[in-house]
Amino acid sequence: MASSSGASSGSGTLQNSVSEGDLQHVTDQRKRKRMLSNRESARRSRMRKQKHLDDLMAQVCQLTKENNQIQTSMNITMQHYVNIEAENSILRAQMAELSHRLESLNEMINYINSANGNGLFETDQDTQTHDDIVSSMNPWSTSLYVNHPIMASAEMFM
């Protein structure tokens, strides 16, 4: 019986060592499987990160392009604004000059009308009539105003 119990305990040790060997092998396989899984997960993570970086770079390029287009549009609009502002200043200067001329003409007409009302202008055949005086004072028919164009330029206002 001793031999059978010895054989039995020897085989138990053998079974234990085989079991420990199998257990070690299973543990190693699990570790390798976990390592491979972790490597694959890290690779996917790096790929996602690279894709995200590529998307951000594409977005930067697109936004830079849009920004350049907006700046170009703003520059063109600003140049139009400056040109229109200069033209507006010229028109204001011309309007002021024409208003001054009109005021002067109205003063002359008022003076002639008041002088005629006071009897300063006679209506004889030998003297000039009121209409002759007014027509002779027409600023558009004299060379005084014809040779003097309205002078205003953008440089005056800058």
How is this structure best summarized?
The protein is mostly helical and 158 residues long. The protein is 80% helix and 0% strand. 0% of the residues are buried.
How is this structure best described in words?
The chain is an all-alpha fold and 158 residues long. The chain has a domain at 21-114. The chain is built from three helices and no strands. The protein has helices spanning 2-117, 130-136, 143-146. The chain is rod-shaped. Residues 1-9 and 142-147 have low confidence and may be disordered. This is BZIP domain-containing protein. Residues 1-12 have a biased composition (Low complexity). It is found in: Nucleus. Residues 1-51 are annotated as: Disordered.
Strand content: under 5%
Number of helices: 3
Low-confidence stretches: 1-9, 142-147
Largest sheet: number of strands, sense, barrel closure: none
Kindly state the percentage of residues in helix: over 70%
Annotation, overall tally of beta strands: 0
Distance between the termini: 125 Å
Radius of gyration over C-alpha positions, nearest whole angstrom = 53 Å
Q: In sequence order, what are the helices and strands, one letter per element?
A: HHH
- Helix/strand-derived category reads mainly alpha
Name the overall outline. Answer: rod-shaped
The overall pLDDT average reads 79
